[in-house]
């Protein structure tokens, strides 16, 4: 641990800790980011005190004139305190901008107090104020990073869940499977669909699989290509694919796009496809006469 | 006969089992053995079981297509059976979806189809 030359900022935070805390608190109140509806005064003050203590402890360890590196060891206490408080506050519904303003509110009171102390040495005042500003800004940005990382994680998790949910292979009948596709079919999902489907063919010894695209919003050349490749892979496995759910509109689009399905069987509805599937595996559904007996 | 592939006669059907460690030379030998055997035993059905095959490349893909084309020329209906999902995906990825070959889920499925046509 290197001890940097003591600056007026760190002296201020040490000697006038309570006053800085009060002023920070007051600024937050004035700027409307204190959220008294979510946190009691005591709770808010405790959070601020934790942050300020970590801040003042870190200040004596670093060289204020050097570039701010918030990943440095000296800042670890403050980083920890900050992420804990961010977590607590956001869990109760504090918005990201409020959290940033919450930290930035420290700047103004400290500037004012520094001005009082360093009124005789404008050079030192300017330097200390600028350095202090840089550090507070860096932490405000750190909070933003934290939010972005958090959100990215949620998006990634939901994408994975959606992927799993959106490719269920269902056994309709002995040796007949269906995979109802819903939403958009990009390359990644198409791969997932194919993998699930082929594995299910092995698992169920399926002979016919119905790929239903009723729920697919857009069929363009790429989606059509994915479907045909899936059908080709299904055939290689020794089963047959039926593409169902081709609406009149999609049929027209496909022809306009010049998509040739070749020998792949297609049906307009899943009902028609099931009918065809039954025929191929040798079943027939018939009406039971007088079924009320 | 090559060690990595064996040809058995079941009823009047030739069963070709391809093992995973098959080399390019083995495959070319197999092609010769198979065509001779079809003629000598006047077989009307051929089943190529590739369930053991875990890795395919364009060469194997091409040979599989050739094997079925040759058998077809010699009047034997040919089924490729037991393809693994990963192999099917690779072949499609390579653009080799064997358009001229018949496929079946397993040996018994292929035999049933051949019997239905009176070829086994």
What are the secondary-structure elements of chain B, in order, as H or E?
EEHEHEHEH
| Average pLDDT level of chain A | 87
> Biggest protein-protein interface?
A-B, 18 and 20 residues
The name of the CATH topology of chain B is: Transcription Regulator spoIIAA
Report Rg of chain B. 13 Å
How would you describe the shape of chain A?
Answer: elongated
InterPro entries (chain A): Bact_StressResp_Reg, RsbRD_N_dom, STAS_dom, STAS_dom_sf
Domain STAS (chain A): 166-277
Organism (chain A): Limimaricola litoreus
Keywords (chain A): Phosphoprotein
In short, what is this structure?
The complex is a heterodimer of chains A (293) and B (120). Chain A starts with 7 loop residues before the first helix and ends in a 12-residue tail after the last helix.
Give the tags.
heterodimer; A: 293 residues; alpha/beta; Globin-like; Transcription Regulator spoIIAA; 2 domains; five-stranded mixed sheet; 60% helix; elongated; B: 120 residues; 5 strands; 43% helix
Describe the structure.
The complex is a heterodimer of chains A (293) and B (120). Chain A starts with 7 loop residues before the first helix and ends in a 12-residue tail after the last helix. Chain A has two domains: 8-162, Globin-like, CATH 1.10.490; 170-281, Transcription Regulator spoIIAA (2-Layer Sandwich), CATH 3.30.750.24. Chain A is α/β, with parallel strands linked by helices. In chain A, helix 1 packs antiparallel against helix 3, helix 2 (17-31) crosses helix 6 and helix 8 packs parallel to helix 9 (221-236). Chain A has eleven helices and five strands. The mean pLDDT of chain A is 87. Chain B has 120 residues and is of the alpha/beta class. Chain B has a single domain, classed as Transcription Regulator spoIIAA (2-Layer Sandwich), CATH 3.30.750.24. Chain B has helices spanning 24-40, 58-73, 85-93, 107-116, and strands spanning 5-10, 13-18, 45-49, 77-81, 102-104. In chain B, strands 1-2-3-4-5 form a five-stranded mixed beta sheet. The longest helix of chain B is centred in the first third of the chain and has 17 residues, at 24-40. Chain B is globular and about 35 Å long. The mean pLDDT of chain B is 87. Chain A binds chain B through residues 194-195, 198-199, 201-202, 205-207, 229, 232-239, and chain B through 79-85, 87-89, 91-92, 97-98, 103-106, 109-110. Chain B: Residues 3-114 form the STAS domain. Chain B: This is STAS domain-containing protein. Chain B: InterPro entries: Bact_StressResp_Reg, STAS_dom, STAS_dom_sf. Chain B: It comes from Limimaricola litoreus. Chain A: Residues 166-277 form the STAS domain.
